[in-house]
Each structure stands twice: as structure tokens, then as C-alpha cells.
Amino acid sequence: MESPQSSSALDRLIFNNTVLRRLPVDVSDQQGSRTVPGACYSRIASLQPLLRPRLVALSQPALSLLGLNVQDVLDDPLAPEYLSGSRLLLGSQAAAHCYCGHQFGFFAGQLGDGAVMYLGEVESDTCGRWEIQVKGAGVTPYSREGDGRKVLRSSIREFLCSEAMAALGIPTTRAASLVTSDLYVSRDPLNNGQRIEERCPVVMRLAPTFIRFCNFSVDMTLLETDQDELREKQRDDWSRWICRYRRRLARESDCTSDKHLVKQERLRVMSSSNPRVVLRNYIAQNAIQAAEKGDFSEVNRVLKILEKPYLDPEPLSGQDAACGEQEDQERWFPDKYDAKPPAWASKICIT
């Protein structure tokens, strides 16, 4: 359904959907999965709204890329529909990417986004250009035998992992929001023939562009490399690196260097490169299990902690921290997210 006139921050987003103007677009009204010749995108003629969508998690760092804040979204009663692809934002145009490529060593032909819907490209002078997608919004021409829906297990992992990687400084797609619903799909999570009903969410993703290598048909010739030549090159590269590293150590040990300052700088660099907290499987699993019972507080708490993965590089033990520092540590690490994984974590099965 189209959006009515509104003055909300979401409706004030400025769309400039360049790819739909410059690349071949399939405009067929045919519904369902099908072969799409000669197109990079297919228009989605009919939206597939979620049943009673509701916001359960928002990433402020990701929303800020669109010039939004969390309150902007929470103040908009239509936000759950907008952010799940159940209703189009003003200026948005629903479409799906077409691409092809190799799978398991063989050319697989047409693939495409079978559960992802392009909403458009938002641009501003301060935030640049960001392409918006919603993942789990329903069937596209590229869904093959799928239903175009996702479940909480995969969606929560993608939502948290995208923002965790961004906070670590690793370029990746961003996740702005997680919307859940009362729509259910049948899945076999352990591939053992035991199907269960699982709730359908939608993740809103952002990237400067989602155009990838496999969007284009490129003929490539595999080059054979002489293995002996490769090993010799690797040995030479390793030797050169060792020489450079030894020269660096020598400079740090030079009598003219202030050893205390050198040590402090080394600790600073190490602390800024070695995160205190990462998204371990058991942390995500705890959040997923709570969410499957309707409690998304752990998802939001983990998200908040992952936004500052390098926080407080000092030990967490009470004897190593002052009273005020210990209180701050307990607030940020209430369940020891930086501790060793529990024994049960080794038995987690992820499909």
C-alpha cells in the first residue's frame, strides 16, 4: 500500500533511485518466481505485508547514516510497516536484484535476491548515498522454491553481526532495524525432518550499494600458478616481513626511546585492535532464545554492548579496578560477555 501524506522524519527521506534509471529493469507484472532475461532488477508490483508488524530493535549508528535517530522512528506509528516493506516510503520503489554466479564449483545460472527487496537509495549532503533493502519481505522473481521469508534465528544473527562488525571497523552491510510480526512459516531448523512454526521478522539493511560482482556476466579464465614458484614467493615475502619487524623492535629498544612511552603506545594500539567483546555464538543464541519467547531485551542489550567492543581494556576483576570503575564495568558487562564461552556453547547447532 502507498503511504499517505505525512510529515514524519521517515517520509522526509530523499530518494534518488539511480540504479532503476540506469540499469535494465524488468517491469513484468507476473507474480511469483520465474526466469528474468536481460535485466539487473525486477520491479515488485505487489507488496506482501507482515501480519501485525512491530519494531523490536533499532541501531542508532546505522539510522544516523540516513540522518535519522531512534526517536524519529519510534514517533512514527507507520514505522513498523515502512521498515518491513509492508508499506512504501515516499519516493521508494520496490524491486529485487538479479544476479548469477557459481555454486559448489558449477555455474548456477540465474540466482538473484530471493528474500530481499530493494526500497531505493537515500541521499543527503551530510550522510551521502545509502541503498536500503528489507530482508524477509516476501517472494520475488528470484525466490525459486522459497517463500521469501526469514525467521528470528537468522535475522537476529544478521542484525547483531552487521552492527558488531561495523563497530570493529570492518566494512560491511549495516542493519538499521529489526521488525517482528505474527506471521509464521514452517521450517526444519536442524534438517532432521522435524518442522516447526517460526515467527517471520524483517531486517532493514543499508550499504552504499548492493551491486556485487555476480550482478554482471563476466567471463574469467582460471590461471594456473606454479606451486614451487608460489612457495618461493611466500618465503621471500615472509623473510622481508621478519626483517622489517626486527628493525622496528630495534628502534623501540633504542636507548634514545622512552621505554615507558613505548609501552603505553603499544598497549594503546593493542587495545584499539583487540576487541574486549565479540559476538560469540552463545551470546547470539541467548538473545535468540529469549526473542523466540517474545523478550527482545537481550537483543537490545547485546546490541548496545557490541557498539563499543573496545570499551575498558582493563581487567574486570574487582581487585584490579577502583570502586567506581567496577560499577561501570558491571553496568556494561552484567553477564560477563567478555568471559570464556560456557561448556554448553560447544553443542550449539547452527544451520
Describe this structure in words.
With 351 residues, the chain is of the alpha+beta class. The protein has 10 helices and 12 strands. The chain has a 5-stranded antiparallel sheet. It has a 3-stranded mixed sheet with strand order 1-2-4, with no helix packed on it. It has a two-stranded antiparallel ribbon with strand order 5-6. Strand 5 and strand 6 form a beta hairpin. The relative contact order is 0.12.
Low-confidence stretches: 217-224, 313-334
Instruction: Report the span from N to C terminus.
Output: 34 Å
Helix content: 25-40%
Largest sheet: 5 strands, antiparallel
Instruction: Look at the structure and give the mean pLDDT.
Output: 85
Q: What's the order of the H and E elements? A: HEEEHHHEEEEEHEEEEHHHHH
Count of strand segments: 12
| Radius of gyration of CA atoms, rounded to a whole number | 24 Å
Structural class of the helices, strands and pairings? alpha+beta
Strand order within the widest beta sheet: 3-9-12-8-7
How large is the share of residues in beta strands?
Answer: 15-25%
Q: Overall 3D geometry? A: globular
Number of helices: 10
